[in-house]
Design brief:
The structure holds two protein chains of two kinds. By secondary structure, chain A is an alpha+beta fold. In chain A, 31% of the residues lie in helices and 16% in strands. Chain A has two domains: 75 residues, Ubiquitin-like (UB roll) (Roll), CATH 3.10.20; 66 residues, [2Fe-2S]-binding domain (DNA polymerase, domain 1), CATH 1.10.150.120. Chain A has five helices and five strands; from the N terminus they run E-E-H-E-E-E-H-H-H-H. A five-stranded mixed sheet of chain A has the order 2-1-5-3-4, covered by helices on one side. In chain A, helix 3 packs across helix 4. Chain B is an alpha+beta fold. The longest helix of chain B is centred in the last third of the chain and has 21 residues. Chain B is globular and about 60 Å long. Chain B starts with 6 loop residues before the first strand and ends in a 6-residue tail after the last helix. The chains are: A alpha+beta, B alpha+beta. Chains A and B meet through strand 4 of A and helix 6 of B.
């Protein structure tokens, strides 16, 4: 198989990876150890593979890795600073907004993109932002409450 | 995943994209948002041509025409102040229902049309807006009305050409507009969608009318007979009844896992009534 090179930033670090031209971003990120990017439905329905590309949430199962050339990718691994969690992560913990955790990285990244764009969203806006990420454990109430709390800056 | 792909190109211009497409022959595919192409999972693709850097992401006014570049995302369209203000915002509202936030950050207007789906949410308002599609090939560009773009179920007349942009010509003065969608959720695929545009004269009679529907025939359609029935009439209860009956006669829905043909037909009646009521009641648009 032919290979090519892709240069991008992942969580603020410059990367230069050898990929196959048909590789999907999801596969490459997991191959490189970013396991917070979850392999779910692989058809753009469940949202578990969400990452931010240049600040915008996308489904990495639908994007070719070559399309990430020169872009900035943020995965859930890039949110914390050392031992200090992102306020959204703190809020998810405080609200018990995690059960099995499979959808959690995607929920948090979608929330991150929303709050970056709109620091004080309405509940409806939070629900819309999370609607592309399926939780099959419990539901959405606690994640929604967590995001709203993070937006209020209280974290709880 | 796409093991057969040997080359991935990101042309910086339409000209370069066309050259690559020509060289790639039948084994080359154009990709933009990827939300259809990747899901289809076609395993014979040798060459991918990513056109998202070919200068086709824009929303501009050219004279009295609004033009939207083929790789403009649904998110860009739904958030564009110009498109939100255009024709009651029907195109922006339709774009806002094209899947999740993530999908709308990827999916493009050109892709929504190129896919040829009868349920393409943006096609319905674009039909009501008399939109035209600009296609480019090695010989040049041509503009075709969206009504001539579809060629049967999941078939378009694009051929080897590339969709460059969509043009929305000047709208009738004082036009009133509506977009209506019925889906299992707001962002799910349409079971039925409808768009309408009305221009009334000073006596309140219909001077100009457009009724378009999606997911109720092999392509997005205009209900032309129903539009003709509206001409010259006042927007009262009897007009609505007659026109909605005609719409139900004109559509050719199918039964599938999402809905039965009979249900879809009935919902055409309901959505067109809502759309016309909204147009008659004022400007603006709701879902």
């Amino acid at each position: 198989m032919k290979s090519m090179e892709v240069r991008l930033q992942v969580n603020g670090e410059a990367k230069r990876w050898t990929i196959a031209p048909g590789d999907l971003l999801l596969d490459v990120l997991r191959r490189e150890g970013y396991f917070g990017v979850k392999r779910g439905c692989e058809s753009g329905e469940c949202g578990a593979c969400t990452v931010l590309v240049d600040g915008k949430p996308i489904n990495s199962c639908l994007m070719f890795a070559a399309q990430a050339e020169a872009s900035e990718v943020l995965t859930v691994e890039g949110l914390a600073h050392g031992d200090t969690l992102d306020p959204i992560q703190e809020a998810f913990l405080d609200h018990g907004a995690v059960q099995c955790g499979f959808c959690t990285p995607a929920m948090i990244l979608n929330a991150k993109a929303l709050l970056n764009r709109k620091p004080h969203p309405s509940e409806e806006e939070v629900r819309e932002a999370l609607a592309g990420t399926y939780c099959r454990c419990t539901g959405y109430r606690k994640p929604v409450e967590a995001v709203l709390a993070a937006a209020r800056g209280s974290g709880r | 995943m796409f093991d057969t792909v040997e080359s991935f190109y990101r042309p910086g211009t339409v000209r370069e994209a066309l050259r690559l497409l020509q060289n790639g022959k039948t084994r080359a595919r154009v990709v933009a948002g990827g939300t259809d192409l990747v899901v289809e999972g076609e395993q014979s693709i040798r060459v991918l041509i990513d056109i998202t850097h070919a200068g086709l992401s824009y929303i501009r006014r050219r004279g009295k025409t609004w033009v939207i570049g083929a790789t403009t995302t649904m998110a860009a369209i739904e958030n564009s102040p110009a498109i939100r203000a255009l024709a009651g915002g029907i195109l922006a509202r339709a774009a806002a229902t094209c899947g999740s936030v993530q999908i709308r950050n990827m999916a493009t207007l050109g892709g929504n049309l190129a896919n040829g789906s009868p349920a393409a949410d943006t096609a319905t308002p674009l039909l009501a807006l008399d939109a035209e599609v600009v296609l480019a090939n090695a010989r040049g560009r041509r503009k075709i009305p969206l009504t001539a773009f579809y060629n049967g179920l999941r078939k378009t007349t694009t051929g080897k050409a590339l969709i460059v942009e969509v043009a929305i010509p000047a709208l009738p003065r004082g036009g009133r507009w509506s977009f209506q969608k019925l889906g299992r959720t707001e962002s799910d695929i349409s079971l039925v969608n409808a768009a309408a545009g009305l221009q009334l004269d000073s006596q309140g009679r219909v001077k100009w009318a457009r009724i378009a529907l999606g997911a109720v025939a092999s392509t997005p359609i205009r209900a032309v007979e129903a539009e003709n029935l509206l001409a010259g009439r006042k927007m009262d209860e009897s007009t609505l009844a007659v026109v909605c009956d005609e719409v139900a006669r004109e559509v050719r829905p199918i039964s599938d896992v999402r809905a039965a043909a009979e249900y879809r037909r009935e919902m055409c009646r309901v959505l067109v009534r809502r759309a016309l009521e909204e147009c008659a009641g004022g400007t603006g648009c709701s879902l």
